[in-house]
Write a structure and sequence with these properties.
By secondary structure, the protein is mainly beta. It has a domain of 36 residues. Strands 2-1-3 form a three-stranded antiparallel β-sheet, with no helix packed on it. The model has no long low-confidence stretch (mean pLDDT 75).
């Protein structure tokens, strides 16, 4: 069973109570018997391993886009016409 922190509304003493996660209790302070409220504490979360945004969406060297000031080199045409010139759709034919 998980342990939860409670704080007394009268004497401000903090103490721990173990109970099931979904169980709703009315908890009383062990020293003054006044009503106590559950304390919520922030905690840090560290994601490690594969499957997280930082590792899955990081730019890979092959995914890098060419810079706008550097012209892109045209790939050689793989299709040739019968007269051994570049095809009519190829930018190299212009």
């Amino acid at each position: 069973m998980p342990a939860y922190d409670y704080r007394c509304t009268e004497c401000e003493q903090v103490f721990e109570v173990r109970h099931a996660a979904g169980e709703q209790l009315s908890v009383d302070c062990p020293s003054c018997s006044a009503r106590a409220k559950r304390v919520f504490s922030p905690f840090g979360v560290v994601f490690k391993g594969s499957g997280f945004h930082n590792t899955d969406y990081r730019a890979k060297p092959s995914d890098e886009k060419p810079s706008p000031d550097k012209p892109r080199e045209a790939a050689p045409c793989s299709k040739k016409d019968s007269d051994s010139s570049a095809c009519s759709n190829c930018p190299a034919a212009e």
